Amino acid sequence: MPGLYYLSLLRHTIIARIIKRSCMKIAIINGPNLNLLGKRETDVYGNMPFESYLDQLKGLFPSVSFSYFQSNIEGELVNELQRAGFDCDAIVLNPAAYTHTSVAIGDAIAAIKAPVVEVHISNVHAREDFRKFSYVSAKSAGSIFGLGLKGYELAVRWILDPK
Ligand code: DQA
User: Which CATH number fits domain 23-160: 3.40.50.9100, 3.30.420.270, 3.40.50.1820, 3.30.70.360?
Assistant: First the structure.
């Protein structure tokens, strides 16, 4: 009976989605100088070190398996994008200053399988003109900027429930 077939298909789809959602692997990748969060230009970036924020994020999403990588070196960021891009379900990326300069990071995003959400803590469009251009936005699923560290949480929420 076609009705029964569709019902069973629907059940399988729902179960597959629940399983996928319950063991999501999300990579968070931060670019240069973001290791200084909490100390660096606190009027722009706030007082919290990223490691403390990451603990909060893990607490909010206990079913997500997070990996975290930060580097001040462009090639290391490309390497991590290539690694996570075929291993993780999605990537939350703040390329920091490389956003505005790195063709290599833009190309890496285009090359990988996992969708990337671009996050900026500050409102890059309300700052210097050079921060308005991004090599990353056009290759990303979407971008969040100006919402502080909460942007990372919002990115994860979208990854878990994009509809
Ligand atoms: C940043 C914005 C960039 O323009 C800047 O170079 C950074 C941080 C942000 O999160 O607001 O280092 O990506």
Answer: 3.40.50.9100
As a whole number of angstroms, the distance between CA 32 and CA 52 comes to 18
Give the start-to-end residue ranges of the domains of the chain: 23-160
pTM for the model stands at 0.88
Q: State if residue 124 touches ligand 1 by the CB under 6 angstroms criterion.
A: yes
Do the Cβ atoms of 26 and 159 come closer than 8 Å? yes
Ligand 1 atom closest to the CA of 123, numbered from 1: 11
Strand, helix or coil for residue 84: helix
The answer to whether residue 152 is catalytic is no
**Active site includes 12?**
no
| pLDDT tens-digit profile, the chain (163 residues) | 566 667 676 776 666 565 555 589 999 999 999 999 999 999 999 999 999 999 999 999 999 999 999 999 999 999 999 999 999 999 999 999 999 999 999 999 999 999 999 999 999 999 999 999 999 999 999 999 999 999 999 999 999 999 9
